[in-house]
Amino acid sequence: MYDIEKVREDFPILKRVVNGKPLAYLDNAATSQKPRKVLDALTGYYEQHNANVKRGVHRLSEEATAAYEEAREKVARFLGAPDARGLIFTRGTTESINLVAYAWGRKLLREGDEVVLTETEHHSNLVPWQLAAQVTGAKLRFIPIREDGTLDMDEAERLIGPRTKLVGCVHASNVLATVNQVERLAEMAHEAGALMLVDGAQSAPHLPVDVGRLGCDFFAASGHKMLGPTGVGVLWGRPEVLEEMDPFLGGGEMIREVHLDHSTWNDIPYKFEAGTMNVAQAVGLGAASDYLEELGMQNVREHEKRIGEYAYHRLSEVEDITIYGPEENRTGVVSFTLPDIHPHDLAQLLDEDGIAIRSGHHCCQPLMRRLGVPATARASFYLYNTEEEVDRLVEAVEKAREFFGAFAS
Amino acid sequence: MMRDLYGQVIMDHYKRPRNRGEIEGADLEEHLLNPLCGDEVTIYARFDGDKLADVKFTGRGCSISQASASMMTERLSGKSREEAEAEVKGFKKMMTGEQEFPETDDLVALKGVIQYPSRIRCATLAWDAFQNGLGIDQ
Fold it and tell me: Quick one: which of B70, B27, B123 has its CA closest to A345?
């Protein structure tokens, strides 16, 4: 039994009052709030163990190194990675994908090669590939979406072929609430001899993820969207693929031997972790993985599916509303527009009632163009949101419509 | 607070924008996008000698950006180039709090925006576009 009240107790910030109203935090696709367990892990690390990792023989350095490596093991286990050697700490999904685009893409892409992405990608899984394509002469191709926001898999079949070197796809869309069939895309990619990269920024926090079962070669995620601190994320890569790649950033710790004119590289994953990493944040992310595992990702998924569907249906009752994405099999994201209120104005009016939603293009400008809107409003739910908060959202949206309607054009 | 931000004047300009439309063969035509939210405006102006004979705008976006554009076109029509420059600079100073809003002025309707730093760019979008169009560094 999922005890929502007990879960909410774990998040100190949920007691905040905004504009005289209890905070309803519905901007989880942007970033999540943090449970006490994660906050304690951060302060505990700084109060008890802080030292630079892998550089000292003194006690604290040993402890800090152990805590950092333990966090790696935890996150690897959380993502179903068979081997923690493939788990690289980064700043977040954006850096993870850039790492692949630089260290794999720039080394191995050639003129005439193709990288197949989708129309729904976040800028973070698009712009790094545009940069890599400019340098290498590789081409980008895009799998389109159907009217309901799901990927056109027939078109995917047609696009993925002998020229394809990598297929990159967002696992769960931060706008459409879709869960893409990345397992199927991974099969297609491998049949074509290409690699598969999954952008898991919106899936790792919300769905049970097993990188082995997905069949991907790279999986990127952000800590701050999955209850962890900002400044830390991960790239999981298949060790054989990581071995082939050049380093991303050069500096301390990623080397084995350094001469004035050349260097040799450390083993994976350290080859990709140059300089002093965000150690405390990694420890915090380890604690977040523990917290999510204790709740059970299947329970989290079921709770969010329920809340997301409830929100979808309640919002559908609002006159003239457009909700994007499919009706079924949704995540806890609900993007919508109203004809007479710009999303920015709506978000501002909702803030008056202590309700935090996002408005804008959600870092998906090509998708916005495809949908034919400059921006949408987006409510995104997480494991601590309640049906009562959905009701407050709907009520506030109705109120905003009345307010704007009062100034008839 | 809602009424502070979305007062009668702003809502009136938003719902009944003044000088909305293109100017064929305009002397000044400048498009500007706010990448944060996707709001956009294009400002058109026709000069008669040194005087702004006509100022118009098109665009789409939130009430603040569109109302501010509408207010700006009213404000600048009939002004000399130098006066218009001074108006734009003055307005931007008001929006950054460096200069007071004159209480008797229509523009004071936008004063509430200052409390919401993320929305200031909405209010200055049209003014920035016009300034770019004049070829002035911001």
Answer: B123
**Is A216 in the active site?**
no
Indicate if A278 and A399 belong to the same structural domain: no
Query: Would you state the pLDDT for residue B138?
Result: 55
Q: Which residues in chain A show pLDDT less than 50?
A: none
Note the pLDDT of residue B37.
74
If you measure CA to CA, which chain A residue comes closest to B14? A409
Distance CA A389, CA A395 (A): 10
| Closest CB from B2, B15, B62 relative to A407 | B15
For the segment A210-224, what is each residue's pLDDT rounded down to a tens digit? Answer: 999 999 999 999 999
Minimal-distance CA residue of chain B relative to A352: B2
Chain B contact for A408 (CB, 8 A cutoff): yes
Collect all residues of chain B within an 8 Å Cβ-Cβ radius of residue A374: 37-40, 60-61
Q: Cα torsion at A98, A99, A104, A109 (round to 10°)?
A: 20
Contacts of B62 in chain A (CB under 8 A): 342-345
Q: What interface predicted TM-score (ipTM) does this complex get?
A: 0.87
- Of the residues A229, A264, A294, the one at which a domain ends: A294
Q: Which residues pair with A338 in a beta bridge?
A: A341
- Asked if A403 and B2 come within 8 Å (Cβ–Cβ), the reply is yes
Is A407 in contact with B12 (Cβ distance < 8 A)?
yes
- A239 plus A314 within the same structural domain: no
Q: What is the pLDDT of residue B35?
A: 78
Fold classification of B2-134 is Sufe protein. Chain: A (3.90.1010)
